[in-house]
Specification:
The protein is an alpha+beta fold and 447 residues long. The protein contains 12 helices and 18 strands. The protein folds into 4 domains: 62 residues, SH3 Domains (SH3 type barrels, Roll), CATH 2.30.30.40; 93 residues, SH2 domain (SHC Adaptor Protein), CATH 3.30.505; 77 residues, Phosphorylase Kinase, domain 1 (2-Layer Sandwich); 180 residues, Transferase(Phosphotransferase), domain 1, CATH 1.10.510. Bound molecules: 2',3'- cyclic AMP.
């Protein structure tokens, strides 16, 4: 299935962790249970459990994930955002016993998988390769149509790999979500992922096992008085097309903003990578569609992003993408994120009324989305290449030319995003609908 999804509620979810009801309104679930969400209620979904015995009640939203039956992420043994070291740490944690196993994407061989199995005090890793016809194999000559069938075989014939596959690895539960402020000691920073406008981004581990991204920001650059209020607002924004905020550490320097980790990094760098450069048109459209979906959610809640660009969209293992850094611009002191400071404001992505008069609205986000579409269909090219910010602002028309890979219908949408008059620009709901239709048509045409 393509990572592009369309609106529908109620929705199918599955439980990521065991949850025990604490009152009669809540519903106990076991990891893997399938749930039908009837509505969202703040930090909970009101859901019907489809596994027996069927029952309804509230389940914390951070204990569930949307289920897409065809996707691997639905399987309790599949851990898509985890590397070899993290798999090792998780399997050796007290939550897991010998025989615990998981499958994750291979780090060294793109498109392949690795099976990690706990054997007493150590973890063994096995490469699962893909044969030319698409079948999977762990040992030459033993081919399987799916990871599920491969696992079924090696569970029954575990002597072939000398380690029994007894139960799927138990993931680390997220800590209670009412405690957003966390002690710094809970996070160990690993590799530096890069520098953003406002600080550095690090790969990290939360409590030794949850992979996270940690954004470090100097408090001198931040409106600290507003932090608690803003975080309160940000934590209510939950959508599968938005990066999940996990925690903050605002006690001391630098401030940590902790979010989910996305293994393929930003859409901008992904589009420029060899893998990104080979993407087909349906996938480019799927990215555009997913971003419009996430932004549509922000639009409904009247949240203005202010810095929508491919560098602030992140890509996961299964090519899902999520909008990041929404609301962050508002947390930064005006002189850090201000048109008058010149160099900080991303002029090339900013609507004229926002760049000139600081009028940031949902319609200025729409302008930026048009530029993001340009980035997508040029495979990550910088808009107004070779021009300075000043030159860009002074252009009579800020329209960009139609990229070679861009369908005419998409270019028409771009031009509508760049209407001088903000009211004439479309909404994200409409863009999502239009891009979704184009994506479906293209998909059908290619079948
Ligand atoms: O293009 P990248 O590899 O992806 O480099 C940038 C860098 O940090 C500065 O923004 C990466 N980055 C930011 N947030 C995350 C995240 N949540 N997961 C993974 N990478 C991230 C981004």
């Amino acid at each position: 299935m393509s990572p592009c999804t369309y609106p529908s509620f109620p929705r199918l979810f599955h439980a990521l962790y065991d949850f025990t009801a604490r009152c009669s309104e809540e519903l106990s679930v076991t990891r893997g249970d399938r749930l039908y969400a009837l509505k969202e209620e703040g930090d909970y979904i009101f859901a019907r459990r489809l596994s027996s015995p069927p029952s309804t009640g509230l389940v914390p939203i951070n204990y569930v994930a949307k289920a897409t039956p065809e996707m691997l992420s639905d399987q309790p043994w599949y851990f898509c955002e985890i590397n070899r070291t993290q798999a090792q740490q998780l399997l050796l944690s007290p939550a897991n016993a010998p025989g615990a196993f998981l499958i994750r994407p291979s780090e060294s061989s793109l498109g392949d998988y690795s099976l990690s199995v706990r054997a007493q005090a150590k973890v063994c890793h096995y490469r699962i390769s893909t044969a030319p016809g698409g079948s999977l194999y762990l040992q030459e000559g033993r081919l399987f149509p799916s990871l599920q069938s491969l696992l079924t075989y090696y569970k029954a014939n575990w002597k072939l790999i000398q380690n029994p596959l007894l139960q799927p690895c138990v993931p680390q539960r997220p800590p209670a979500q009412d405690k957003w402020e966390r002690p710094r000691s809970e996070f160990v920073l690993g590799k530096k992922l890069g520098e953003g406008y406002f600080g550095q981004v690090w790969e990290g581990l939360w409590r030794g096992s949850v992979p996270v991204a940690v954004k470090t920001i100097k408090s001198a650059n931040m409106k600290m008085a507003d932090l608690a209020k803003e975080i309160e607002a940000l934590k209510t924004l939950r959508h599968e097309r938005l990066i999940r905020l996990y925690a903050v550490c605002s006690d001391g320097e630098p401030v940590y903003i902790v979010t989910e980790l996305m293994c393929k990094g930003s859409l901008q760098s992904y589009l420029g990578s060899p893998e990104g450069q080979a993407l087909s048109l349906p996938l480019l459209l799927s990215f555009a569609c997913q971003v419009a979906e996430g932004m549509g959610y922000l639009e409904e809640r009247r949240v203005v992003h202010r810095d929508l660009a491919a560098r602030n969209v992140l890509v996961g293992h299964d090519l899902t993408c999520k909008v990041a850094d929404f609301g962050l611009a508002r947390l930064l002191k005006d002189d850090v994120y201000s048109p008058s400071s010149g160099f900080k404001i991303p002029v090339k992505w900013t609507a004229p009324e926002a760049a000139n008069y600081r009028v940031f609205t949902q319609k200025s986000d729409i302008w930026s989305f048009g530029i993001l579409l340009y980035e997508i269909f040029t495979y990550g090219q910088c808009p107004y290449e070779g021009m300075s910010n000043q030159e860009t602002l002074q252009r009579i028309s800020r329209e960009l030319p139609c990229p070679a890979a861009c369908p005419a219908e998409v270019y028409t949408l771009m031009l509508r995003c760049w209407k001088d008059s903000p009211e004439e620009r479309p909404t994200f709901a409409m863009l999502w609908e239009k891009l979704g239709t184009m994506h479906r048509h293209l998909h059908l045409a290619l079948l």
